[in-house]
Design a protein that fits this description.
heterodimer, A: mainly alpha, MetI-like fold, 13 helices, about 0% strand, B: about 250 residues, globular
Amino acid sequence: MAVYDKIETREAPSSSKGALHWLRENLFSTPLNSAMTLFGIAILFWIIPPFINWAIINANFAGSTRADCTGDGACWVFVKEKMSMFMYGFYPEADRWRVNLAYALFFVVIAAFKLLRKSGLKIAIATMYFIVAFILIRGGFFGLDMVETNKWGGLMLTIVISAVGIVGSFPIGILFAFGRASNLPIIKSVSVTYIEFIRGVPLITILFMSSVILPLFFPEGVQFDKLLRALIGITFFQAAYIAEIIRGGLQAVSKGQYEAADAVGLSYWQKMLLVILPQALKVAIPNLVGSFIALFQDTTLVLIIGLFDLLAMVQLTGSDSHWLGFETEGYVFVTIIFWVFCYSMSVYSKSLEKRFNTNLK
Amino acid sequence: MENKNDVIEIRNLNKWYGDFHVLKDINLNVKKGEIIVVAGPSGSGKSTLIRCINYLEQFQEGQIIVNDVELTDDIKKIKAVREDVAMVFQHFNLFPHLSILDNLTLAPIWVKNTPKKEAVKTAMDFLERVGIADQAKKYPNQLSGGQQQRVAIARSLCKNPSIMLFDEPTSALDPEMISEVLDVMIELAQEHRTMVCVTHEMGFAKKVADRVIFMENGQIIEENTPKEFFENPQSDRLKLFLSQILSH
């Protein structure tokens, strides 16, 4: 029998581990890659230092009037002074606590969702929240002063439009997705026509139609709230996209699942809601959230029908004669806000995917 | 022809997929408590036949009467039949987003309005019987194929069906898992539940079947007791089939 000496364990060669290895593997793997890496670094050098100079080093933070903008860089005083406009639009200052309370209640609802298990109860609470938030923000009940929707604005309006758009379009989208997958010819063709029609029209057109053309159909004197019209337009616009995304999810569910649900005796709606939809949604989460992020950004289009969301508010305050020339600061601020919201949604999407992953081994 | 004991009556059943004639003039009566094994080469229409019995497949001609209910496209009749007929699939078809326990309690709770506690108790009893009670909280993809198929059998038992259909229940399993599933099926057979099994497991057929049916090209070529079926096949086609399937 041969005798072998045991060789001591050696470190992996330095060329296959560590930061150097990572760099070589990812940034300098080919001459072209190296060139692109260097080019990228050059661009960053070209952009970042001047931006930091402008945004922080040479910027003004303190003060309250234009006279305080003495530096060469950004003057954040503008953003600070106009902050309440950015956040609430023309919402009366004395009533802004109502909006804040609605925000706060949102986090209470989130906390409640974490504690509760029954989905029926969750839906009830979410519905309640929307009613309460509506009453709080609009008023007109329980001694709260009525705040007309034309005074709503800024980030608050952006959030209202996207929240209603997301929550409203979701069930409608599901129904159209079911409709398109249905065997019943009438339901199917209605769904296909709806989806294809809406997807063939830009959101701007829908907003124009809802604000300009729709009132023509109402008898004279009937006032239909402008925001409400925009909300309906956006919700039905978004629903068509949601329907297509969910249809993709439905197609990913195997035929065997439909058959098993049929074989155990579930009715059509039980089959779709208890067996098929949960699996379809799981597949569709990334695309759904992607679409909701796009909707959040698209809400800025309501500017064209005279609603003042966050972006519109910046344009408006930028044309304030005391503050001419400070739009850039405003736009940077808006960029940051939008990024925070969209990135949060994206992170939430990742956590949802993880939560619903039952393919664990 | 009319027989009180027949729980399934299939008369002159014909089915086409477009131009393709899959089932040709099938006549079959199944008595209460009878165990039938359907054998035949792939593509012979065996699966299609048993899938017609719970109306997963529609047919163009003929009649299927299950427990005195004639299957038509009337949703109420289909529902009535499906409540009494369970099916076990080749690919298990467990619901991957639900735990094992929820897979079993879904139909009792939603279809039969069984209180949750009672449904859970029944489900645990059946899981106990198929030997998977300790996995009740897991998800289907965490189990082996054999375990998943046993869960699927337990799921189909939860609504206490009078008729059980098995559509090649062991064909998708690794060889070492086949016997654990067959053992469960043999145990069920001994309870005198009506069973119609499409399977290639001839040992199972010999052991428990009351009748074995041989199909080819959408027709029933031969049907007989297992003893006669295997020892004294009549048609050349069956002889060939048996020699191929039993030679190894």
